[in-house]
Amino acid sequence: MTATPSDEVAAPVVVHCRDLCKKFGSMTAVADLSFDIQPSTCFGLLGPNGAGKTTTLRMLLGQSPRSGGILEVFGEDIDHGRRQIRQRTGVVPQADNLDPDFTVKENLSMYGSYFRLDPKVLNQRIPGLLEMVELLPRADDRISTLSGGMKRRLTLARALVNDPQLLVLDEPTTGLDPQARHMIWSLIHQMKRAGKTVLLTTHYMEEAERLCDELIVIDEGSLLAQGSPSELIRRYCESDVLEIRGAVGEIRIETLPEHWRTEKAGESLYIYADDAQALVDFSQNLADMVCLHRRAGLEDVFLRLTGRALRG
Amino acid sequence: MNTVTPPRLRLESLAVWRRNALVWRRLMTASLLLHFGEPLLYLLGIGYGLGRFVGEIDGMPYFNFLASGFIAWSAMNVASMESMWSVYTRMVPQQTYEAILATPAEVDDIVIGELLWCGSKSLVSGSAILAVAAVLGAVNDWSALLVIPVIFLTGVCFAAPGLIVTATARAYEYFNFYMTLIMTPMFIMCGVFYPVSSLPGPVQSVVQLLPLTHAVDIIRPIVVGQPVMDLGWHLGVLALFGLVTTWIATVLFRRRLVK
Predict the structure, then answer these.
(1) What percentage of chain A reaches a pLDDT higher than 90?
(2) Which of A125, B154, B177, B214 is deepest in the core (most CB within 10 A)?
(3) From the list A79, A87, A99, which residue is nearest B104 (CB)?
(4) Is A44 helix (H, G, I), strand (E, B) or coil?
């Protein structure tokens, strides 16, 4: 559902931000960022390291005062309503900050106490949350005995302790094995089905493609692109890619068709084109090289928009 | 948010207090050993050993003089250590405050909750020393129990400057400066071991400005059952010191945690 000014009452956006800015001294971390997040959707915030993703999330939670612009969550200005906003928001931060002095179960009840939730409500809710993230058998274990994946799952359960309407996930699957990652993905789908709004940052484009209804790509604090994953792929990339590895220096790029786009990265050559068959035919002639033909994905869009240079 | 307004009092600060209290309950034995066992050994060793040569000071046996001084010192020491090492641990390596700040609790709640907690910890250790002093005959009357709220106040007053140091600290080593340059001189000069009146005149005037002197001047007479001289003045100085340092600590913590 798209919110036009006339139906804003019917479907108020969860996050509304216009020309949002953040400066640290003379350094601009976020510049003129504008986006809206619709209810019950998963919204992706993508960008290389240092692009301003975490700063944006921190501003959204009122943990970092903005330098300029409009920022409203649940229709409330973040400066005035941040406590009410956080009451309705769950957060999975990038770095683990579970409380090492408590057990798995106690981490949830302690966190709930910061929301001033009724202990009775918490005691009813906590077993269900632990069951959902498959940590019920570990309820009385100390945090130090958990694996990285278990800690992430517990952090996700902790973010749900206040039954939030908005879930903010800052790289929730970084460093996880595929099993744990798939479990987190299915939990995020479950959250969406339950009507919660999800704001996600990730470096995994496959993850963003699977989960996000809409996403923005930012770099150096500025918006580069916005749309659904499939829209972005259509808009910013040809449909097919041929990845060639080996003696790619022998391929004379100037002899390739003009509408083919090429990109060289180290020992690899990437050829982007809309004509899949032509790419496959071309690859038949490259006997000594390793060729991989595939559909273009969000990762290709991301690299095209943000470049291949390494970030700090 | 990053303003210089006075700290706001909210119920969330009690959740921060409760968190620390629950952790402490789990590690109680080790904590008591440090904050209670150590002063006890000093007290027995110096109080009885040295007391034999000193005899009486200010109309009381040296053991009583020292025991009542130690209650004040312990309140300062326990609150300072908690507000520096423990708070820094929660703030930096454990990122506990980062987690708390994603909930409706705010920086002010963390500062106030930690202050209340430091005061509570002082209260436990000071009361434990009071109990030992009573068993060993240094306390004459039940009225000594009136000292308990003063111990709490003393703890809070010394936790606030500790929080100021923590808010600006980049590593644990930073606290050694404060301990050596501020805490140890107060421990030695503010009337814990001997009356301030025995110091040279100019030094006395400086020592009269230090908060521990005022804490000792209230706590000692209450413990040994003597009338407290200038109670309002001493309480006033302590309270003013505590309020000003709490305000500064709150402003510095807002700058440190919300940026």
Answers:
(1) 84
(2) B154
(3) A87
(4) strand
